[in-house]
## 1
Amino acid sequence: MSVPRIALATLLAATLLPVPADAQVGDDAQPPSTGALEGRPEPGRTSPLQSLVDAAAPGDRIVVPAGTYEGDLLIDKAISLVGDGRPVLRGSGTGSVVRIRAAGATIEGFDIDGRRGGDLGRDTSGVHVAAPRATIRDCRIRDALFGIYLRESDDAVLEGNTIVGIPDRPPGEVGSGIHIWNSQRYRVTGNQIVGTRDGMYIQSSSHGVIRGNRARDLRYGLHYMFSDDNLFEDNSFETGAAGAALMYSERITFRRNRFLRNRGFASVGLLLKECDDLVAEDNLMADNARGIFLEGSHRNSFRRNIVAMSDIAVVIYDSSRTNVFEDNAFVGNLSPLSLVGRRTDTRFAGNYWSDHGEPDLDGDGIAERPYRLSNVFDHLRGNLTAADLFAQGMAARALGAAERAFPVLDAVPVLDERPLARMPRLADVPDVTPAPEPAAEARTTSLWPAVMVMAGAFVLIAGGRSPLGRRAGAQGGAA
Amino acid sequence: MMGLIWLCARHELLLAARSRWLQWFAVIFAGLALLVAGSGYVLSGGYGLQDFARTAVSLVQLVLLIVPLAALVFGSLTLSPDRGAAELLYAQPVPRWAILAGRVIGLFLALAAAELLGFGVAGLAVQYYSGPSGASQFLAVVALSLALTAVFLAIAAALASGEPGRRARALAMSLVVWFVAVILFDLAALGVASMLRSGAASRVLMTAALVNPVDAGRTGAYMAIEGTSAFGAASLALLRFAGGERAVAALVTASLLLWTIVPAWVAARRLGRTDL
Amino acid sequence: MRSIGMALLTLAVASCAGGPPQPVAIDLVNDVCAHCRMVISTQKTAAQLLAPGEEPKLFDDLGCLRSFLETAPAPEGSAVFVADHLTGDWVRLEDAVITEVPGLQTPMGSGLVAHRTTADRDRDPASRGGRPFDKAILLSGGRP
């Protein structure tokens, strides 16, 4: 059944209707610690659309015309609320703008403004869901503490939404773009997240599909724990201060994702802490402070990924067991490995290492000598953070060279026994997305090299033709 | 007095500009800078990532290795007061330190000009291939280079001034200094740190990274080029140890300045006492 | 050679700086939990372990401190500071009141919070429904 379009005037009139007496479900007096659910918004903070929702029957499709609707909205029926011409839902600034509390509800095609208000402890969100089978599609959410929050909401579908965080607010005072907590079998596809605390925060939520999303300019692109059997495909996690981090989880699959330009103090392209049986294939991990990080994580396999331009390509704690790296390409990393602890049983085989430089004499595509990932310096830096200050110094290189000459120094070497001699063609690995525009200063100061050449040449030529020349010449040249 | 120092500087610059040593240095430095810039471009070319930062960082490596060596060798060969010319020079009714100052300044100008030439050529090449980018990063490398030139010329002067007529000895000593500054000091610091507990070890390493002029230069240049997080978690520890970004910059500057002023002062004293 | 000696002397002096352990300030964008490796998002549930001669170890959740001590017991002479959940101020663990609040969302879900006094605990809405937690269990990493 479908409700015909309702004129704006009717909607505005609806705000004047008396509010039912049982409106105060979301009692503010309850302690935030128990995570009380926000319910029906208070009178005066209620969206004019509320009366429509209240009047609708389960299964109705309500089309909302363009316009700005101020106040918060409770959806407690299995209805579809569809915006036509991108109507704006402008929240009260005190709680979640849209609260979905009934199974099977849909909201689609709205611009949602959280007005920078609310309370992290109460999970104030653009769209807050606490009901199964919710669909949130094609919404643009901005200035909300959390963008979309799924709380114990199984089988949700989040599709094609754009979430923009609150600018200039410290990470401690904002929430994630998409926050998924205790919700199973979700589908998160084609969403864009910019400038929130974490892009996607996933906790205790399994059997989900996360595909084609892009999260950038935030803290963690992906922040993930206690969640198993999830599938990540074709996502981008970019320019995060921390990168992507997964903890205490099992059987996760990553295919064709990008982990790009995560360059903070503690950034990692993909961090695994106590994660087992993960499969990562055809991903691009480039320009991260550290590419891949494994601690206490077992039986994970990395195949056909490109790990490029990192300071350290792989960090492995010796608490990690039987991990495998095969057929990956490691390109332009400053160091291949930092090993924390004493030894590792991680298997490296058939990878390409751009700094290997060993010839392939018999033409089988395999370099004639194994590639050594470990060295004494990397042991040292693995166990002593400050040693990183010397990682690019001559001493670290000298240690590496000494080790090639006297292998006894590194008693338990980490080797790739059959490194590829040439960069493999990894057709499924995604390309790099375009970098942000270079700073304007670049264009104006592009004269510097020419100025330097001229200054240097001038000093040398003018100095050499000094009028003092005849007198000095008599003394003979020094040096 | 300033006029006199300037006269000596011009004179030294003239000799340097005409010397084969400096001409070779200019050519080799430009060639290496070009090579580094080119390979940096090739490395990043496939991805369009880290274009200029990576090139600048490679240039820093080159500078840290070559510039101290050139300044030490060139300085110790030139500034060693050999019998003959120096005797004549220092017999003038002018304080010896002023003559020395002039000569060091002249040498500095000559080396700086050669380095600028090299960076300029490399910079033009990078711009040609990848468009204008990262001028401030490039200037950080140039500043590092000039600072290290000054530091190691001053050290060379201190070494040479006490060894009249013993150029070979001054040269040998300056090579030892180069080896210590570039490798041995770091190896010792890392070795000591590996035997200490983590708190003391990281204080040793962070102090070492600021005390040795080569390390101070590297630390400062990397943080200028790649940002304060250049060394990952170690950066955070360093910022905390020093008391912030400005404090690190101040300590790096202080280290480089002290390593210029103190050896220069030692050189003047030693030259004043030497019997020529 | 003298300069090397001087440099090493400076190093030696610098590395002897000491005194009673003082809590370090946490940088909420960059500091990482020593156990779970997560960036520490909030001071309110943080803790730190200062072992003599070691770098300070920071934790984002009292549960992480507990798990860390489970695998690596604190050396003799260590000091443990916990943040007051109301104010974020550092309190020595010996002086603090620890409460376990089932269902409270702390960064790693332990539900553990610390307060300077029992009065502070009672003032803090977050600790409602909680029960006192034995500090000895925290230090021993949960072992009896």
## 2
Amino acid sequence: MAEPGSDVVVVGAGIIGAACAFFGARAGLSITVLDRGSVGGGTTSRCEGNILVSDKGPGPELDLALASRSLWLDLAAEHGAERYELEEKGGLVVATSEAGLSSLRSFAAGQGTGGVIAEPVASERLRDHEPNLAAGLPGGAFYPQDMQVQPVLAAASLLAAARDLGARVVTGEEVTGALRGADGRITAVRTARTTYPTAAVVNAAGTWGAVVGERLGGTVPVLPRRGFILVTEPLPRVVRHKVYSADYVDNVASGDAGLETSAVVEGTRGGTVLIGASRERVGFDETLSVEVLRRLAAQAVRLFPFLAQVRLMRSYRGFRPYCPDHLPVIGSDRRVPGLLHACGHEGAGIGLAPATGRLVADLLTGAPPQLDPAAFDPMRFVLEDA
Amino acid sequence: MGTSRSDRVHDVVVVGAGPAGLAAAGRAAALGADVALVDGAAVPGGQYWRQPADDALAGSVASLHHGLARYRRLVERVRGIEAAGGWFPRHQVWTVTREEGTFVVLAITGTGAEEREVGIRGRRLVLAPGAYDRQVPFPGWDLPGVMTAGGVQALLKGHAVTAGRRVVVAGTGPFLLPVAAGLAESGATVAGVHEAASPLAWGRHIGAVVRNVAKLGEGAGYVRTLARHRVPVRTRSVVVAAHGEQVLERLTVARLAADGSVLPGSRTTVAADVLAVGWGFTPQLELPMALGCATRVDVDGSLVCTVDDQQRSSVEGVFVAGEACGIGGADLAVVEGEIAGAAAAGTPLTDRRLLRRRLALRRFAAAMHAAHPVPTGWIDRLTEDTVVCRCEEVTVGRLRSALPLGADDARSAKLLARPGMGWCQGRVCGYAVSCVMSAWTGVPPSPVSIAARSVASPLRLGTVAATEDPSSAAES
Amino acid sequence: MTEQSFTFDGRPVAFRSGQSLGAALTAAGVRSWRTTRADGRPRGLFCGIGVCFDCLLVVDGRPNERACLQPAAAGMQVESQEGTGHGHLEV
């Protein structure tokens, strides 16, 4: 028995799959979203919901981030900011040393050419932005364009909006493979239970994109990069912006496999303060690392001394999907006609989701893409091998 | 704030000094192992043999305890552990980690500026974390004065305080009787015991009951005490709502039909300043789950650890005993503790009698669970403004609002409506949220999806940071 | 029997050695000492054994101590708690 057919099957009901479904449905396509778990239950539920431009230098990822940012604002205007818990809170990047401050200054100057607004903040003005910040930090930069959403709510709301446009969302449905016609084109997606006839499939499986890609006939080099986040007891608003130390940017871009940590601190609507960020390449190892927790706690306390007396209530870990060049894969897989990939957004999936979804919709309908997709071409890794 | 780590590596570290942990520690020590025993309380005993932290206070509650002679024997057996520096009272374990082939139990002791972390190392672990009262929400249950039956019992046994002047005891299970009897003996007016189960329920499990006649005798003693104090005991009866402005003043009680619904016309109002309520127990699985121990769903719907006949978990070197392997009471916990302690000491018991005794007690527990289910009608009695998650103040209505967003189980409901996100991390509401979501969506509950809690007990970030090696964290 | 006292919102509350703050407050007829952060509802002891965190109060200036676990000590200054207990940190 087969399910009713659709133009597109999106594999993954995380933030990327939700955005692909929404923009695809809005472009007039009939969409079926399949997820082996629940809505937003993967990496989307293991992150902080950041929509950042502050951590990106000029280049294709920044272009995607800026396009995405304005789409997030459009979505909030259209559906109501509350549906996403979108907050235009701004980011404060803090240098912890004089050397760090001068490299932050030159990084910020470069960002300006790419469209990022960065306002230098002198040491004595830092506490105007964040009154609870430690005294004596050398200085920083304020990024008014940084924003935050509640990530699971955002994915669920995008999927609900897609459903309003006719999309179908099936959870608890694991994709096991694809059926292909004589010409090699995908004709249906197989699951453990049934098949879903379709003309196209979007691999939006995030950290599990490599596995899903392989099952659909076109693998992509997406690997997990583990990160822990500490969650405090509920507090009033104690931190206004996303606040992070300047070395975060170096860590994000680093190719090092070892453990890297840098202080990232921000409040949430729920009242908890989230403390990150760690990055390490240990596969899908789910074990709690107390050493990582200690480092994150120590770094956060250095930025915000009051945190020493605040309790750690829980921690969680996620696996960010990363590609070797730290850029996502978005586009058609020319080995398998009908297959598209939209995964590998590393730690930036929430921020990059709407522009990714719109780009995928453009590729599916044949509309001229509103952004040059060349840098995200899934074939870039394949061609290197050949 | 600070830390202390010792290089001493114990043969066995036992976490929890209730019936199972005391038995395990004593048995392992008797077999020659170097044992550490860690517990959050000042005095061993756990919830069952909860003891006041002061001798004078202990004297005034001794008559409330059942099997105190046995408790004293078990405590006597761990004296050597204390003498050898292996007894860690008032140590709240927040996680367990591994280092160089050993387990490191990380515990917090001291409060405020005195709070510090202590690392206790061991080659093998016995986890005996016990359980806490299982609750289901009902309108008004968040009023002060509504308490868990175990909490009321803890006040009495541990602090010589009766929770209220006029108390109603309700819920289901054999534990309600000693709570009510203890209150009556201590001078409180027990306005009624409302047991939801049918008086005939045990009849179907007569085989398991006759093999455990002693337990039956214990129950009969409580019934006699309640009769002497003229406490009305009603079966097939439940508290359906609590009322009061700022504190509990009145309760609505009602009779249940066989299907768990309320019999029409059976609602009556009872004045009370305290309700002691419990629907069985929930095992504390944080530590076994942090270590990756395999779990299963027991007959009462609780997630429990999977163990073999030597109480070995699925993780090498980790033994689990007592309520964490299935709610079964103190007698079973002691037997499991003896077996686990011996196995962890490297000398597995060959005494078949103990193994047979465990089997009989397990069967008795299964019969108890079958006779005392949570009647399903409670979900139908929830109102839209009934609080489900007490910490985050999530009402039924708010939980329901997650459905159109795609919430289909307790975990997705948590991510979209916040039940279980607060201080208690879903310990209190987890069972109820699972049941409600399952009733609404038809998807069977999956207790394991919300059972993992990475931090078993909250601690200050300054304490977490204190043992961090500054050289390794130097910021660039 | 030793009778000592701590202060609760400024007035003395007697306790016996070995009792928790929650037990001593209960014995003194105090049922509630916290209001919730969203709806301002009263709370007090619920689980009584450190699991539920409903009985939080302020002990010698430290918020969010569990009354059911915190041993009473002579001279302690105990206060009822509003919301998160960290209102002074709000920005």
## 3
Amino acid sequence: MQKKSLRIVHYLNQFFGGVGGEDKAHIEPQVIGGALGPGIAVQNVLGEQGKVVATVICGDNTFAEKIEETSEKVLELIRPFQPDAVIAGPAFGAGRYGIACGAVCKAVQERFSIPTATGMNKENPGIDLFRQYTYIVKTPKTGIGMAGAVSKMVSIVTRLAAGQRVGKPSEEGYFSRGLMTNEVSAQTGAERAVAMLLNKLKGKPFDSEISLPQYDRVKPAPRIQDMGSATVALITDGGLVPTGNPDKIESVGATRFGAYSIEGVDGLHSDDFEVYHIGYDPIFVHEDPNRLVPVDVLRDMEKEGIIGKLHNKFYSTSGAVCIVENIRRIGQAIAEELKAEGVSCAVLTST
Amino acid sequence: MRLELEIVHTKDIQFSDRTEIVDGELRINRGELQELLERDIRFSKVDIARARPGESCRIVQVHDVIEPRAKTGGSGEDFPGALGKQRMAGQGSTRVLRGAAVVLSDCNKKGLYPTREPNGEIIDMIGPAAEQGTYGKTYNLVLMPRPADRVNPMDYRVALKIAGLKAAADLAGANLDSAPDEVEVYELPSVNDPAKGPEHLPRVVYIFQMLSMQWEPIPGEPVLYGTNIEGLVPTILHPNEVLDGAVLNSYRSICMETYVIQNHPMIKALYRQHGKEIHFAGTIITTAHNNPPEFERTANMAANLAKWVLSADGAILTKAGGGAPEVTLSQTAKRCEELGIKTTIALVPMTADVRDPQSEASIIFNMPELNAIVSMGNPSVAPLELPAVGKVVGRAVPMPNGSPISDAHIRRSASIKGILCQMGSSKFKAVRY
């Protein structure tokens, strides 16, 4: 069977496109037929598999200043060539160029549903903005890595265009796109664990199957100088909700939170609340919800003048098997609301 | 210690007027078994059904799965301490109906917890869940005991487990005088007798976290020789005891059925390498805790036992429960590494940090020395597309969208029994692209 020759469009900035340096960083998107600059390398790797049919060139500042508008213009320049795939850059360590390459790949992938690839150095800000939308191969900081980057990019798009799969980030040399799936391995988990331990014992190399997490460091707010005039809010991730769960907070993987009035109550009553949370045993909270959200104690402290005031609502979500983005968003929303309502500090109770 | 498992391969399951195994066909006198189980006053009635591979059938509210087993030749008691009298497990011989399973379907009207899916965990006998999981391939006897009036949910759960053990022992014990199809032998020398072990090989221990205290232990629930191990501190168990009915699954554990404990994949994998690449030096059992003094105690004691009692060079650790047990797990592994024991952790990650490409991780610990981790599939990704089925077994309720549980639907792998396993039976591996 004769393989179809792929039509590739290549994206470059003003520098790699040979238009000029920083003085030409404001040029508008333009297109020329065939390959140019790094595109020659792309064409060499492609060989008989395909042809660089056009090159789109745009100034880095033009793109960085108006990302969406410029993406649209670039799409319109690409469209008439009906490509099978688009390759951008590589941008190496150049930040504005990286953002442009990522944006072009994202737009092309979304609008034309064809494979895209680009290349960047690990410090390029374009990576975190666009890694989930395209394949960004790892490159050194400068153009010395051109040959390696080009062959990786070409290899990825030609296989995708042929409907073949692309391997793992570590095998293919691209930045993880964050897409997780369960694959069937040749061995059971137990067999892999024994094999991995044997390699570790013998000092042989082994590949851990889970990377260690990196967490944001949160700078604590300054301490409260005078608790006697502070407004204190109660927040919990223990999944306490009014009976019937009016906000439909999920007992696992929560995407929502609720704010529930405690105006004028001296404590929470078991008939009024229940727990939506799969990660702990709610018996003791069901017996007395104050054990999780200590409204009773805070009311006493309010009366005794230890705290100024208890905020008139408590906030609740369910912290079981949550996705970090969701829980970060929930935290930010609660914090903004507390800030807007003049709350000075919060007690967070977890389970 | 030497254990012989007398394997009888089960090729079908039928209801009959006599309980026996004939040419691999498991025949069960349903009325007799029902009568035996209904003697338990905690039940008002016990329904019994069967489900065979390839049938258009879905079993719902599955609480546990047990492999039919019976001790032979007076070499012990069936599930000692839980069903039988207190006797040592792990030695002598045990009859095993391989390919058969007793499935416990929970008939409590309302559990104590509002769960994400009112039908609980399911087993499908056809479709992708049957292909990918363990229990769509076994010949299943499903028990559906209904709680008697005013029996509290905790007591019911204990009764449910005991019913399963009774049935498992009853089936396997039906005709013990017939010859088994094959015999598996599990034998290790005494740990303090290095002359009898392959001393030139690295000594490897398995640190088996059996239960997470993130949930209240159930009073009277048999987990280890009949105790609910609420106050358990780390101790050494012979691997054969685990394989031979001393250890049972707890109601709230995740991805670790009794069936898998009886066929413990990590213990079997270590046995297979014993004398070849490693010296399998024993099993340490632990629990997971919520508070620092408790998880530090467990970590220290387990690491000390591994290092100074079992002389381990390497350790493999697994966990029970959800994300919280990873704290005790990682502390224990860290203590081992500090004592010079190389570790590998194998787990089903439960913390679903799956969509954040920057974190690349789905666990809650970060210690550089814990650099060897096996991922046994992530329950938050790759849900299964289940087909519509003709028959539902168990107390079915509508799905949250209102349609019947027999309908085709998409389901998380963690809500299907036997897809993912904390002890290493599945081939799934979570991979990030």
## 4
Amino acid sequence: MTYNAEISRRNPGLFLFLIDQSRSMSHKLGGTLRSKAQEAADAINRQIYELIYRCTKSDGVRDYFDIGIIGYGTVSDTAQSLLKDADLVPISRLAETPLRMERRKETITDPEGNDVESEFEFPVWFEPVANSNTPMVKALKLAQQWIDDWVAEHPDSYPPVVINISDGAATDGDPLEVARDLMNMSTNDGNVLFWNCHLSEAKDAQPLTFPSETGVLPANDKFASQLFEMSSVLPEGFKRLAQERSLEVSDTSRAYVFNAGLDELMELLDIGTRAPTENLQ
Amino acid sequence: MRLNWRFFQMSKLGNKESDCEDSFSFRSREMKFAIADGVSASIFSDVWARAITDSTVTGKYSFFENPDNFLNDLIVRARQKWYRKIDWEKLPWFLKNKAVSGSYTTLVGLQFQNTGGELKYSSFAVGDSVLIHWEGADDYSSYPLTSPDQFDNTPKLVWSGKGHPMPVEFKVVPPKASTYRGTMSRNSTIFLATDAVGKWLLEYGRYAEVSRLINSSFEMTELFTREINSKRMRNDDLTLVSIFLE
């Protein structure tokens, strides 16, 4: 059985986010008023917040996960960690070192039906950037190095989950071969899982979530079928979560969303991070 | 006629003793007992479980009454204890943001009453902590769950209500408790158990063994560790109270 390892402080999991920071990420995300870079940064900040929330116990944040964030395209032909002075960090360290805190408001309804407005602090770990070209191959190679060290230290852990968010083709070569190498890395519980989210600018774009074959993707879009091939086949636990949300999945569905808007981006991040947290001990 | 009781508790394997989120309280004069299993998906559930069992046994009400008559008061008193025990202002953001959602627990309350030479009992429960009345061999009854397949991941729970910045006066709708009554016969035993032990007892029926071993914390720890490692028992915080009528 694979993707079944219990996640504990002794055997933590790993989430690694890869974010395209190329210039085109400054364009608006389809169906929203904000740029792809802003929506992607906000979505990942929110996802890290959710992960910390799930790992928080009365005595603090337990290190059930290590986290890494690689940005590519901030500087031309460069991929780098977006976390200050660190590559992969235990999740408790992220909780203690946000870049800044924002004050946000929420409405709480009491049992008598009264709405009460309440303020809370929301952490931000990294800011949106849209700057240069798309050195995706460099990002994958950096991810490979980090994961190589991590799996050597955690041979019995739940396999690393890598989530790549991008809006365009790599400008530094063919990422397919590196992606295959990445997906062939493993712990004793299974291979590295590689998720890809292709963001769209088109207002009326038809998103395709977890496609099963390249035939359903636009024939003239080489980048779409490349990202499909670069994505892992969805393991059982993730498939079940997708089915619970009424998404159509099959045994060959890939961890890939084509033409994603904000809803699809959020859904991909949520499903991609939720299945492992069901194994928390 | 004498009521003897024994208590055993251990944390989930791999956790510290202080991580245990179960609670047990008793008050011998009123012959009242309570166990609670704080839900680990919420935080400060250990504080809430302790507040609930303490408030259950120290309340002025009789468990022979309908729990609808006293559950609201019980929760209000427990909420005050829970709320005041937490230093809200000093919490870091990640504890504050989660603690505001409140804490959750199961609850079983049990009271005995000597009536005309018979020892009657009345119990109320919310959730999947159980009372098992064992009268020897295979003769037992259990409540609120009666078989191991009824344990699932969505039991009814007692909620503390929202935390700070909501005020301590924040009102909580009490859950509906189920009730159970019986008579203790001589040499029979009542077990109060949180879900993992309760399920295991109902599945494997090892009442005689735990009645004997519960006098030794060491032997109980060995038994439960063995059962968890062999996957017959779920790895969870474990609480078992055994009440025996001599």
